[in-house]
Write a structure and sequence with these properties.
about 160 residues; alpha+beta; seven-stranded mixed β-sheet; 3 helices; 7 strands; globular
């Protein structure tokens, strides 16, 4: 097996909470380099997330909270949005665009594409936070604690 490139750490940075209708989405940026995220990509990600929540989330027994990753990768742009439903289930949706066309995000979930190694790190962080602040406190879930449990690391 030959790899094209050795592993190199990437920054994962909490950006902000987006309030979309009755939703609160924790938004993170992940970049191949330490360059800031492309503003067009951020705007396109927000549009895609709004649309996905309208199309899919109402069909789930959700809590109005979730998280999103906007990943400015080496060869493309990746966006994912996730939300919690039915206590412990994660709904995950993925979009991809070419690097030079960040506004042309395509819905990729039906292809089976899930996440890269850096996206999985963020998903694992969010899983830990959900378990700690919600599932382990079933009698009085701490949603504010969950929303404040963010990650800012280079991994």
């Amino acid at each position: 097996m030959k790899l094209f490139e050795e592993y190199r750490p990437r920054p994962i940075q909490f950006l902000e909470n987006w309030r979309i209708d009755a939703w609160i989405i924790k938004v993170y940026g992940i970049t191949y380099t330490e360059d800031p995220l492309d503003q067009i990509l951020i705007e396109s990600a927000r549009e895609a997330i709004i649309e996905r929540l309208k199309e899919s989330a109402s069909e789930t027994n959700h809590y109005g909270v979730g998280f999103a990753g906007i990943h400015q990768g080496k060869t493309g742009k990746f966006v994912f949005v996730d939300w919690w439903a039915d206590e412990n289930e994660l709904h995950h949706h993925v979009y991809v665009s070419q690097s030079e066309k960040p506004s042309e995000l395509k819905y990729m979930t039906p292809t089976g594409l899930t996440a890269c190694a850096w996206d999985l790190y963020l998903i694992c962080h969010e899983r830990r936070a959900w378990v700690e602040f919600v599932l382990m406190q079933a009698s009085d879930p701490d949603m504010e604690g969950y929303l404040h449990a963010t990650v800012n690391e280079i991994i």
